[in-house]
Amino acid sequence: MAKRKALFMICLLTVAFGLTALVAVLAEKKEKTDGLLCVNSFYPVQLLAESVAEGAEGVTVRNLTENHSGCIHDYTLTTQDMRLLSEAELFLINGGEMELFLEKAAAEYEDLEIVDTSEGYGFLEGVEHNHDHGNEAEHASESCTDPAHDHAAEVHEDACTDPAHHHDEDERDADAHADHSHAINAHIWMDIDGYLLQLSRVEEAFVKADPAQEDLYRKNAEACRAELENMKAEYEQAREALEGKETVVFHEGFVYLLNMLGIESVHCLAMDSDTQLAAGEAAEIMEECKLHGITTLFAEEAYAGSLNDTFGKELSAEVVVLDPITGYSGINTGKTGVSLYCEIMRENLECIGQAYGVR
């Protein structure tokens, strides 16, 4: 009898614990449903959303690709990503064809509000992203660095940007994984004017999604705008000493960054984990460096060592590390959002100045 009673009590407690867990899950789900969930495509957009939504009640801001440290040209949505998007009311993207996975998300969730934060921006020409591992064909072509040249209109004649357009499965796979080239340079956030445009898009998206807290969103956005304008003024001041210099870069975002300082990128190679620096490409870069007298090149940290081995001795050159702001940089300042962005951009400016002997 005692054993039966003990067994009954164990079963009763198990059921009680199970009900408690169920109530907690339902409460959490209800909390998510009652609030506004904003999902952002990747890190630079996340920083903007964090700042604009700071202090807003019932608003959750999530980075869809938080474990992805680089650009997301070839990112593939996971089951967890799809689940997160199914709970979101607002999806903020970088645009400029950066999110090649967008079509799948748009097709799955027709009610999801997708906001292109770079809409209306005049992108520079991009470089080829060739991910053919089987040969050493050229992985990049020289990029146009003329900020007055608007390539967006040229590109969009051929590229489908309608998220409602359903391609067949084979075409979608080809777009996401096969050899492809990105005809525009989507790294808008490395241009402070571009980031200011994105800030305005994020601000309006939150106001539209949650008009009850409009005053807060406007106030936060204005504070961000002031920080960015101050950062822009620092770059404009540094431009006086740097304008007219030439360089080679190994990240598309740095073309925008250096353009703000009047430094021309005579060659851009978009390095990533799939890029193999072909012998012909290395020789071409060396020729251009010798032709233009270039001894300062710019790359992100992951590739600086190998590039220094390739070009340092031959050219008596230095490969300077810059931060493309595509993921957590390790800067431990306690700052977040746009304030962190400005801190990284300030460090980039200091690195460039030191490389050219300008303090």
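Above is the first protein from milestone M3; the second protein from the same milestone is given next.
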Amino acid sequence: MTAFFQSLGLSYDWAWTVATLAGILIISLLVMFSVAMVIYVDRKVLGAIMLRRGPNVVGPFGLLQSFADGLKVFLQETIIPSAANKGIFLLAPIITFTVALAAWAVIPFSAGVVLSDINVGLLYILAISSMGVYGVVMSGWASNSKYPFFSAMRASAQMISYEVSIGFVLVCVVLFAGTFNLSGIVNAQQGFGLGFINAYVVHPLLFPMWVVFFISSLAETARAPFDLTEAESELVAGYQTEYSSMSFALFWLGEYANILLMCSLNTLLFWGGWLPPVDWAPLYLVPGIIWFLLKTFMFFFMFSWIWATVPRYRYDQLMRLGWKVFLPMSLLFVAATSGYLMATGHFDRVAAPAATDTSTIVHSNPAQPKAVRGQS
């Protein structure tokens, strides 16, 4: 994209700046549109499982229902409780929404289709996702209400508990791939399983880690059956109780953007990303972004399916699963993975990684327009 703006007569610095802003705008709009559509899909899946119709009135097949809901909250009055800390109360949903969008900067949708293909993309994702808890905690404290405050305490404990397990799962993936670069992790999965399956999940050491990662993704996004931060039966609506209008909508958008992010990470880290399921030449005729979207949608469908069928955990069950099951299990598999890779000489083979295609939507370093950023 930088080259395109240079062809219009802009200098490299200006072309890079404009291309970066254009890439940010494109990704933000696509994520927001995707959020509107997956909310519709979520309600349709829930309706089908519960033998209801779901949205079917606003627009053809109810496709415009999410946009109607967005217009409704936009026109509502913003109510701020008199005892709330106004500044932090309004800042909390902004932080949640901004952090949810910022994580998409390093997500590769296809080969070379990524805003910033940095070598430490996986660490960036881990750091950004960890910041999401701040919006929830700030909203719970600033509301000056007991139910949001209880929700904030639950959220902080829940997200920290499962991020520890996610971190160890990511260590296993990095050991196999030999890089923190998300594009490099996807490329390392080509033909990984039996020489023709493009996925890490087929390995007996990585399949249990994918199960841990998938369940931890549900807990990290406060999705059922781990939606203890929004438990309406005991906390009314959790940290969102005192919010209305667009401040509530920002929480809503941020929550679903995070869910889509976790679905895409399941796709990229374990299921081959934009690669076809099988390393067979005719399948590569399908654009990589199509495979990426299909796999991501598959995981979102699983999220919706679980929401409709699995009852909510108690809080002590949630903590026990995170600290007494997933943490020891992930630690054990880190040791097992390291031992297996040492025994098979895997580290010697990845010591000198081959160059990979790291072309991006925009270059991450304007001072080096032609630099190739390979694997770490």
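Note on the second protein: The mean pLDDT is 86.
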